[in-house]
Amino acid sequence: MDDNEQLLRKLMKEYGDDILRLCIIYMNDYHTAEDAWQETFVRVYKNLNRLSEISSIKPWICRIAINTCRTLQRKTAYRRHNELIIDDLTEDTHSDITLCENHLSISKAIDQLSSKLKEVIILHYLHDFSVNDISSLLGIRTGTVLVRLQRGREKLKEILKEDFAS
Questions:
Q1: Largest CA distance in the chain
Q2: Residue 1's pLDDT is what?
Q3: Scanning 44, 68, 88, 145, which has its CA 20 to 30 A from the CA of 33?
Q4: Angstrom distance (rounded) from CA 111 to CA 50
Q5: What is the four-CA torsion angle of 91, 21, 120, 9, rounded to 10 degrees?
């Protein structure tokens, strides 16, 4: 195994789960997300020679994942069906079911956001990126990130309020 393969394995081990979650939330389909995850790391492997130019690895890989998801959506004219695959529900306790239902409601609400709002919400709240990190990751101004976060939160409140009212 050469050095690039070892480095790729290390990156996959360190960031693989986070990138898969990002792809699942972005694509809202586990199998398509797996394809996006795999393609992301193929692209990472092809660009390992640029790693010395990269100041922070995780945002770089996230950017590749987002671009990969966008590309897959365009290529396949992918339309989300508001489904979420939950593999980890092992016990049928009331608290687990309530937690699962809440998670599903939030995931569906996030899925209803426009792609621009969805990106910043996912990166900020699910991946703990700062506003500055999101700004450089997406190539937009920090003010734009702040506005999108605010609009995303407002839209999520509206969606969730409607869901829980019915």
A1: 57
A2: 66
A3: 145
A4: 33
A5: 150
Q: Over the range 112-132, which residues count as b (16 or more CB within 10 Å of their CB) and which as e?
A: bbeeebbbbbbbbeebebebe
Helix (H, G, I), strand (E, B) or coil at 78: coil
In this structure, what token pair is assigned to residue 22?
């990002």
Among 76, 83, 96, CA closest to 25: 83
Please name the residue that has the structure tokens 């999108």: 148
The upper half-sphere exposure of residue 164, i.e. CA atoms within 13 Å in the direction of its Cβ, equals: 12
**Whole-number pLDDT of residue 111:** 80
Instruction: Give the predicted TM-score (pTM) of the model.
Output: 0.61
DSSP secondary structure, 85-138, as one string: ---------HHHHHHHHHHHHHHHHHHTS-HHHHHHHIIIIIS---HHHHHHHH
For the chain, report the end-to-end CA distance as a whole number of angstroms: 57
Instruction: Give CA–CA dist 131/128, Å, rounded.
Output: 9
- Say which residue the tokens 């500055």 belong to: 132
Task: Tell me the average confidence (pLDDT) per consecutive run of 10 residues in the chain, 166 residues long.
Answer: 87 92 82 92 92 84 90 63 35 40 66 87 84 87 94 88 66
